[in-house]
Amino acid sequence: MFDFIKRARLQRQGLSCGRIRRKQLQGELWDTLRDHPLVGVGALVISWLGLLILLHFLSVGLHAATAGSAVFVTAVLITASVHWYLGFQNERRNNSQIVLTFAVIGVQLAATGLALSYGLHHALGAGFSLMLAPHALAPTILCMLAGRRLGLFAAVYGTLLGASLVEDTFALPFVATGLSVGFIAVFASQRVRRRSRLLSCGFYTGLTATLYMVLFGQTDVAMGTSREMLLLSAPLLCGMVTTMLAGALLPALEAVFHMTTDISWLEQADLNHPLMRRLSIEAPGTYHHSLVLANLSEAAAEAIGANASMCRVCSYFHDIGKLSKPEYFIENMNPDENPHDDLTARMSALVLIAHVKDGVDLALKHRLNSRIIDVIEQHHGNTLVYFFYRRALDQKKEILRLVEEEKAREDDVPDVTEEGFRYPGPKPQFKESAIISLADAVEGASRTLGKPTPARVEQMVEDIVRDRILDHQLDECDLTLSELAEIKASFVKTLLSMMHSRIKYQKATETTARLRPMPSSLQLNLFNHQTEQPAPLDLWHSAAERALPLCLDAATSLTSELHALQEIEVSLVDDITIAQIHTEFLNDPTPTDVITFPHGEIFISLDTAQRQAVEHGESYEREVALYIIHALLHLAGWDDLEPTNRAMMHAEQERILQAIWSAAA
């Protein structure tokens, strides 16, 4: 309460600049009102009383009240409350959701009462009047604001409560019409991303009401009046007016209840926002990172049914805090000058960690969506700034060595703890925040891959997600293991598609090729012991190096498909490795000896090559050349699945092999 006195004293002592960092939190009272279960129970009771009073007031004007209507309404409200408690565990933690849901249902009931009253005073009959009720109002609003589950909840209980406003004879037609129109409204509005789509939603709901007008025999009411065409089209017009009214109410409800529809998210996905324009000019590397992150997180969110639009927009703004010191972050850093060289490891870590609080400050200043602010706070969780933590440990070790040599004092030894190198958090609290957190780490790590092969990308994603789980960064969000598997698969797919699209094509028509260095851990122990001993790896490697350029020259002279490849990489592996690649990336468990990928990567089983060389008495160079030619023909579009194609491909590779040997001779 008296923090301003402390700040003034520190400012007089020169220990404070007097500035106050903006905070998103609105105080403990607001948090209690929003989250406390007793407040939620009170909100439910107040909602009951409000709806009972509203329905009583409306029924008096409609002459539809019966002795049992209050009992019926109370029973429906109790059922709705139990349904809410059992079926909406996440929503019941937010008391504003309770107020929003029953307030919108109350608005629909009031509009239904007005429609029925209009029909009564214009002698349209109770049966025809129920076709004019705005059954789609609450389902449409709640579906767009909070999802289809709440939309269906409103369709069911809004219809049941509204049935107390009609005569007993027409109660069942009202329930049938209300449920059908409400469910159609939820179906049509769950993917609305443009306001114009609301008219389509209104058309479908109006068409459904028109169908029920025909089924319940209410067309005779319209046919017997001078306003025949107007009354026949009245249910359709009512449906369109209802969704237009829902669209008009959405902005006000979003502002009051701090919720955001997909339409609003798309409106906020504007790269001309002042912060995004600053980011593109002052921190272009961070700007590009944010765009790539948006693609990664959006695809992953769509894969698990999360809010993809929210992920895209939040990804755009998640690193705006780097605008304070953009040159200290590697994506914006001058390659010839590293500002961290002049800082201690602890100070460097503080600079990096500060971008979270600076981002929140900028977001509050520019009045960004509260969900964006949540993502800015949570996208690093309380992870460790590992690089500078290791540097600090190394510096501490060096100072300890100097102390032992009596070249430094013990007071100079720094106190290095993990807590001092961790982000402040909190950890991701919802699915979209967790997706962005994982995508941020994956995107940054993908820049370090020299050759982004499918195996390397998949292993990188797997390692990052596993490390986050082991570090307990995902403990507070509601992601399941199956959803994490889908997120990882989406990351791999998106990264590979982006990386493959960055191939630089050579200006000349020649294609270079190189042989991948032999792994030191390769084991050749799968041969028949009755045959000759396997050749040393260096002999196979030398033979492949001699055969590769000859094969490439001969193959590229036959077809132009290979000219688009900048580089062809050949890897000599064992049978176990090639079987794993065949199963994991091509989903084919059958044995094979050669695998080719469209981007120019070739895997050859050295075990099989060894066995074939011994069996046929061929040289290492000729045998490995045969496999390379086979792979190059696959890259050039040849196929050996059918017997005819297999024979043609076999003849072609033998012809090329003979041409190579003839030229070499």
Model description:
By secondary structure, the protein is mostly helical. It is 63% helix and 3% strand. It has helices at residues 3-12, 28-35, 37-62, 69-87, 95-121, 126-129, 137-146, 148-162, 171-189, 197-215, 219-223, 228-232, 234-257, 262-268, 274-282, 284-304, 308-317, 345-365, 370-378, 386-404, 431-446, 454-470, 481-500, 537-556, 575-586, 606-616, 620-635, 643-664; strands spanning 512-515, 567-573, 594-597, 601-605. A four-stranded mixed β-sheet has the order 1-2-4-3. α16 crosses α21.
Alpha plus pi helix count: 28
Low-confidence stretches: 501-512, 515-535
Overall helicity: 55-70%
Mean pLDDT: 79
Shape verdict: flat
Separation, N- and C-terminal Cα atoms: 93 Å
Total number of strands: 4
Radius of gyration (Å): 35 Å
What does the largest sheet look like?
A: 4 strands, mixed
Sheet with most strands: strand arrangement? 1-2-4-3
SS content category: mainly alpha
Strand content: under 5%
